[in-house]
């Protein structure tokens, strides 16, 4: 049976890799592609991969023939798919995940922000086994737990340390955009690369793991080589992990084929190339934003949505050279200090917290500029 896949965020780092995987595999058919504003690349993708639906959120002018935009494009891009890969960046991805939930379509989830800002809205859908993680750490844990008869006790997320790990701590506050975008082991979109440098990404992953693997203790260790893509500790004391050179095509492919066994071997990898594997504790002084965001995750309610919104604004301001790298943590902390958290009852609650926190974050950015 062919599986029809909708690729949301098709012009991004995850999206473009997913299109290559789908194109190379006869069991997968491309149903739709959707992006925010990169019309040039979207049109090239349409020509190369011939999806049934091509959609853009912000075309910035007239839409070419056959490209849809405007209200309801998420529904139109998702409807008719057997599986949706949500590779949109930011809290903008939550709505797509909720539509998949409502339409009962299996979701391959790269957009970790869906769980960070609105995990409680998706928890039943996760329990029903309809959410397949794409994030490499969560894919690893998911695969380690799959058909594992022994109960698990805890999970340990590995963190490369991002580009900030090799910059002298006294120079970190004023590190430049090029230095921060130069990730030592992964090649990813701009926002997640900056988030890796601040470790906001790892704090988000802890929140994401809490929703995906309910009830398990979650630890984080620094692992500069990014060869071990996280661990599971079982009740019998043994450790399980998946190892290999960093390659997002592996978790993307696993999710798109799930519950199949995977589509094909895509990398020639050998332990002889891995070198020494190191594991150390996180340096809290180097990564102050980690504890701030992890705390927001523990506190629940709309705290993580506020942290995410503040981070989205701060990262965009850093990338535009409006604030310094060190200011990102300040913006998040100050937004959280002023946030009045609410219980999440629906999408609207999340979006209001998101909007208010963005306004606050922008005020703080203007003050820091
Ligand atoms: N990259 C990785 O290796 C990696 C690994 C693990 C998890 N993730 C997660 O996967 C997600 C995507 O990451 P990425 O690195 O692929 O990001 P990216 O390269 O920045 O791409 C983001 C994609 O989302 C689209 N987009 C943004 N806002 C949108 C909106 N409002 N409506 C529709 N489309 C929108 C963008 O379109 P335009 O191109 O038009 O702006 C682009 O296609 C993130 O949540 C990230 O945390 C990524």
Whole-number total of structural domains: 2
Described by its quaternary structure, the protein is single chain
How are strands sequenced across the largest beta sheet? 4-3-2-1-5-6-7
**How much beta, percentage-wise?**
15-25%
Task: Give Rg in angstroms.
Answer: 20 Å
List low-pLDDT spans.
none
Report the helical percentage.
40-55%
CATH superfamily grouping of the largest domain: NAD(P)-binding Rossmann-like Domain
CATH topology of the largest domain: Rossmann fold
Total number of β-strand segments?
Answer: 11
Please state the second-level CATH architecture of the largest domain: 3-Layer(aba) Sandwich
Apparent shape: globular
The chain-level structural class is alpha/beta
Number of helices in the DSSP assignment = 15
The biggest beta sheet is recorded as: 7 strands, parallel
N-to-C order of helices and strands: EHEHEEHEHEHEHEHHHHEEEHHHHH
Q: Return the average pLDDT rounded to an integer.
A: 96
The ligands bound in this entry are: NADP nicotinamide-adenine-dinucleotide phosphate
What does this structure look like?
It contains 15 helices and eleven strands. The protein is an alpha/beta fold and about 375 residues long. It folds into two domains: about 5-135, 3-Layer(aba) Sandwich (Rossmann fold), CATH 3.40.50.720; about 165-215 and about 285-369, RNA polymerase sigma factor, region 2, helix turn helix motif (Rna Polymerase Sigma Factor, Chain: A, Orthogonal Bundle). The strands form two sheets. It has a seven-stranded parallel beta sheet, with helices on both faces. Bound molecules: NADP nicotinamide-adenine-dinucleotide phosphate (NAP). NADP nicotinamide-adenine-dinucleotide phosphate (NAP) binds near residues 12, 15, 90, 113 and 189.
């Amino acid at each position: 049976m062919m599986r029809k896949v909708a690729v949301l965020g098709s012009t991004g780092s995850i999206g473009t890799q997913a299109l290559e995987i789908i194109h190379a595999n006869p069991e997968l058919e491309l149903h739709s592609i959707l992006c925010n504003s990169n019309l040039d690349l979207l049109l090239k993708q349409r020509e190369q991969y011939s999806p049934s639906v091509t959609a853009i959120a912000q075309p910035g002018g007239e839409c070419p023939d056959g490209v849809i935009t405007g209200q309801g494009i998420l529904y139109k891009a998702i409807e008719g798919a057997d599986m949706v890969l949500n590779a949109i960046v930011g809290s903008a991805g939550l709505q797509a995940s909720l539509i998949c939930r409502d339409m009962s379509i299996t979701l391959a989830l790269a957009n970790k922000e869906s769980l960070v800002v609105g995990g409680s809205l998706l928890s039943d859908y996760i329990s029903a086994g309809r959410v397949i993680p794409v994030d490499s750490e969560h894919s690893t844990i998911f695969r380690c737990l799959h058909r594992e008869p022994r109960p698990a006790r805890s999970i340990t997320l590995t963190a490369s340390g991002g580009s900030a790990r090799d910059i002298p701590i006294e120079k970190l506050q004023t590190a430049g955009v090029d230095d921060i975008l130069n990730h030592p082991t992964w090649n990813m979109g701009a926002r997640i690369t900056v988030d890796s440098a601040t470790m906001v990404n790892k704090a988000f992953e802890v929140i994401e793991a809490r929703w995906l693997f309910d009830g398990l203790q979650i630890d984080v260790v620094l692992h500069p080589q990014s060869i071990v893509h996280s661990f599971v500790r079982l009740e019998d004391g043994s450790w399980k992990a998946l190892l290999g050179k960093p390659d997002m095509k592996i978790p993307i492919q696993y999710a798109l084929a799930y519950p199949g066994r995977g589509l094909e071997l895509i990398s020639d990898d050998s332990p002889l190339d891995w070198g020494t594997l190191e594991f150390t504790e996180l340096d809290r002084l180097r990564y102050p934003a980690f504890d701030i965001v992890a705390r927001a995750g523990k506190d629940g309610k709309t705290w993580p949505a506020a942290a995410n919104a503040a981070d989205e604004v701060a990262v965009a301001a850093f990338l535009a050279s409006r604030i310094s790298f060190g200011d990102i943590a300040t913006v998040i902390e100050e937004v959280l200090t002023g946030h009045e958290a609410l219980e999440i009852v629906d999408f609207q609650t999340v979006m209001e917290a998101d909007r208010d926190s963005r306004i606050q974050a922008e005020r703080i950015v203007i003050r820091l500029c």
